Amino acid sequence: MTRPTAKGGSRTSADRLARLLNLVPYLLARPGIEIAEAAGDLAVTERQLREDLELLWVCGLPGYGPGDLIDMAFDGDRVTITYDAGIDRPLRLTPDEALALVVALRMLAETPGVANREAVERALAKIENAAGDLVGAPVEVRLPADVGRVEALRGAVEGGRALRITYYTAARDETTERVIDPLRMLMVSGRAYVEAWCRRAEAVRLFRADRIDAVTELDESAVVPPQARPHDLSDGAFRPSPDLPLITLRVGRGERWITEYYPCEEVRAGDADHWLVSLRVTDLGWARRFVLGLGPDVTVVAPAELAEQVRDAASAALDAYAQPAPDARRAPAPTAADPALAAGSR
């Protein structure tokens, strides 16, 4: 669940991490600085700076006990770092850390849509050179999903060719055939996508590589209309908008994970064990399948149409289980004349 930030503050965890890393050396060089002055220098609000300082209280070295965490002293509206947990020391990677970093960079270098692969490869070469034999272990890096399909999509993007694809749309639970003009390849949340002008929808669309059942490169160049614009994916592939249906669910403790996994418009405390969660969905058909897969600890509050669809689908499933299979015929009950019964009665 994304926490709202104050005006002028960062909206991403990556931005906040960079700010925290800069904050400690900044405060070390200015002991006793006023919080208002520091906030002005760092271009954040005082509230955001105080939240960052509260987070620093629980940051430090492994062990996370007394003497391991960053410490600071407050004198009114002034702050002084009294223990920096070694953040001012040069970074030294352990063998495991170096190997993990090398593997991550190798993966990044093979990721479709990386804008500056040369910069990644230069960084990788420097770390491998510094680590020496520590990173010589035989590690093979493979991208998730179908590598052959991803390579075919990447080739079409680089070659500027149109594609015919067979695509499964999870929101509508249907498979369609489309002709697309690729714009770029990219990775979002660990999944490969091709962004393209869809001639069927007459709009720019994102297509997940693992949902493309078939792909054929056409003998024609990709023609992208001038009005086509790439999506802003800084907040993920799904961007809720006010025109999408809004659903509200009553969620128990066991299903609260959906507030971290899906972008929610509002999360309110209900009783002691339940939350009221509101989120936008692509359509009610997807929402019906989503709710049915969550289990008994989730109840639809709104809209009434979705609650009725879920109730009807659940009732139909129960009715289907109540009916015996067509070929499951019971054997006739034995009678007194039945030889087996007669033998068993002796």
TrEMBL record:
Q: Which residues form the WCX domain?
A: 248-318
Give the matching Pfam families. Answer: HTH_PafC, WCX, WYL
Q: Where is the WYL domain?
A: 150-216
Q: Which InterPro entries match?
A: CBASS_pafABC_assoc_protein, PafC-like, PafC_HTH, WCX_dom, WYL_dom
Membrane-crossing segments per the record: none
From the UniProt entry, list the residue stretches annotated as the region Disordered. Answer: 324-346
Q: Where does the PafC HTH domain lie?
A: 15-128
Protein's UniProt name: YafY family transcriptional regulator
Origin species, per record, is Micromonospora musae
